[in-house]
Amino acid sequence: MSSLTEVKQKNEWKEWGKAILIAVVLAFLLRTFVFATSIVEGDSMDPTLQDGERVIFNKFVYLINEPNRGDIVIIHRPEKNYVKRIIGLPGETIEIKDHKLYINNKLHNQTFLTEDAKNHTGNYGPITVPKGRYFVMGDNRSISKDSRNGLGFIMEDEIIGRSEFIFYPFNEIAKTR
Questions:
Q1: How does it sit in the membrane (predicted)?
Q2: Three-state DSSP class for 175?
Q3: Fewer CB atoms inside 10 Å of the end CB: C or N, the chain?
């Protein structure tokens, strides 16, 4: 009778071990290939994203789709990662005049900007985005380091994911798009 109990206990431990191993492997695969987290540093994406917020970003989406205008993306550079919004796609001409954004000579409405950000964009361009590159800007235009002033055009392989939602602080949980 006691050997039957011992066999059941060993089988139970084996099942628990398998379950834990599967959970660890799945978590590793999801973190490596599908989702990851990033901390927003600085105020360049304010008010959409604020300093210290943690976001979950989708690493898989750009393996099957191209980045789109308006996507908030994580950009990997050797010195650090940046969080910016895609404004210009490959081949498009970007110009900012009188604080208004023009893409291919057509006025583009930026509903995600505050009135203050709209009035502090300044003049820029016209400039054509090269093939395989993207033009990005932060939502807080007056202080953002972006394609206009330091980051330059972003290569497609530097975009490591699309920000999906804020998960911390808990009172700020929301989609980022």
A1: Single-pass type II membrane protein
A2: strand
A3: N
